[in-house]
Structure formats: C-alpha cells, structure tokens
Amino acid sequence: LDWFWQELLSSEVPRLLEDLLGDPESYVRASAVRTWGRFSLMAYSGPEAPVCKSNENPKELCIGGVRLLEILSSDAEGFPRRAAIGVFLDWLKEGHPEASASPAEFVSRALQAVDGDLDWEVKMAALDLVGVFIGQTFGRLGQSSTSAGSSLANLADVLRLFGQMKMLGFLFRALQDCDRPVAVKACEVLLALKSAVCKHRSKSSPSGDASGLKEVPTESSSSSLSSLPAGEAAEKDCQDPERLRRILEFTDLEGLQRALDVSSDHLER
C-alpha cells in the first residue's frame, strides 16, 4: 500500500486537515484533531506505514506534538482539548514515534499543558495517560531487573523520575478534585502505582516507618486527604524516592476509594 500513502500524503488531505484545525466551530476542530492524530499514527506507526524520504519532515505531513500541546493549552473550548489529550493517550498506547522517543518527556509536557484545566473530561484522559505511562514504565522495569538489588535500584530511579516529572503532584491534586469521577480515577491510578511499588520493592529493603507523615485515618475521605502532602511539601516529598514510597505504602488509598464510592458527584473541598 505504499502507493496509497504516497498519493494520500501528496494530496490536499493533509492541508485540508491542517486548515480545519483553525475552524471557528469547536466540534470541527476536535474532529480535525482526532483525524490528524489517527492519520499520523497510521502513517508512522502502523504495519503499512510509508517509507518517508530523508528530506521529508514528518511534522510537515502530520500534526506534531508541539501543535497538539498548543491546542491542549490554549484552545478556549473543551472539545478540541479533549480530542488533543485523547491523541496523546492513543500515541502513547500505540507507540507513535513522538511518544516512544522519550515517553517521560512526552507525558510530562502533556501534564504541564492540562494542569489547571477545569474540564473534567480532559483531566480524566490525562489521568488515563498517567496510568498507561506508569504501567509501561514498570513493565520495562520488570524486564530489565535480574536481581533483587537491581530491582531496588531501578525502583528508586523510577520513583525519582516520577518526582522530576511532577507526576505525583498532579495525581495528589486530582485526588482532591471537586469532581468525584476525577478523584476516583486519581485514586485508581495511585492504587495501581502503590501495587507496582510494593511488588517491585526488594525483600531486603528496610521496611521503614511512617515517621514524618501524619497518621492516615480511615473514617472519611476528607481526613484521609488531609494527610497527603500539598504545595511545596508535596514537591519536596515527591523528589525523595524513599519518602514517596512511604507515602504510597502508608496512605490508606483503599479506605479513600471506599469513601469515594459512596460520595456524591460533586465533592466539597
């Protein structure tokens, strides 16, 4: 099908899609973003991907991450932003070159763009993006670990990376979101991270204690949330792999999840 791709790429379709990204109607822009994202994924990641010539610039043919970030951070309407973060998610899942080249940077830029976004669907998709990234990262960690010692060292590196990306701060803020679905999703992602951390922690690692952390009560979601780090303290704690591990292991996320399951859709914070 190389002939098909060459004809398609040399046609007016790419230019038409790029023009539609600036359409005054938000749903048209959103459709263009989704189509661009799928088109780019098929063109550069699929089994029938065309062989690009050395003088071809992929970003001239298909929308790049920079343009997606621009839409994600600056479009005034929710539909295009939802579409853009959805493309980020698809690209990470399916191994688009812009995602696979540096997954951590790819995800980090997306999170910076959506941080503070008030659209709950954008936040939900961003949390899905984080969940996929965590799963992929620990999947590679499991493949590369050959001994308990290397597993512990790699785990520390992974947690340090998450801290540098400010990913945990994003999750903790989402956990305190006033929209219940967002808080539930953040709790699910943190529980998956907690499970992965416990699984990969070396048996010879000192268990440590929760010194320096507030005791986490389980009676209500508000008291559980109050025990989590916030602001500058959160940024500092998330930069320390051992302290971050303790926060994850000693926070009663299971109790918080049960409390969220019986909460109303809008949470008072």
Question: What do these coordinates show?
Answer:
- Its main location: cytoplasm.
- This is BRCA1-associated ATM activator 1-like.
- Belongs to the BRAT1 family.
- The protein is mostly helical.
- The chain folds into 2 domains: 101 residues, no CATH class; 103 residues, no CATH class.
- Helices cover 70% and strands 0% of the residues.
- The chain contains 16 helices and no strands.
- The longest helix is centred in the middle third of the chain and has 25 residues.
Q: Give the biggest beta sheet.
A: none
What does the average pLDDT come to?
78
Taken together, the total number of domains comes to: 2
Oligomer class: single chain
What is the end-to-end distance?
55 Å
Q: What Rg is obtained from the alpha carbons, in whole angstroms?
A: 21 Å
Record the SSE blueprint.
Layout: H1 2-9, H2 13-20, H3 26-45, H4 58-61, H5 65-74, H6 78-94, H7 97-100, H8 103-114, H9 120-144, H10 148-164, H11 167-175, H12 180-200, H13 221-226, H14 231-239, H15 241-250, H16 253-261
List keywords for this structure.
single chain; mainly alpha; 269 residues
Short description:
This protein is mainly alpha-helical. Helix content is 70%, strand content 0%.
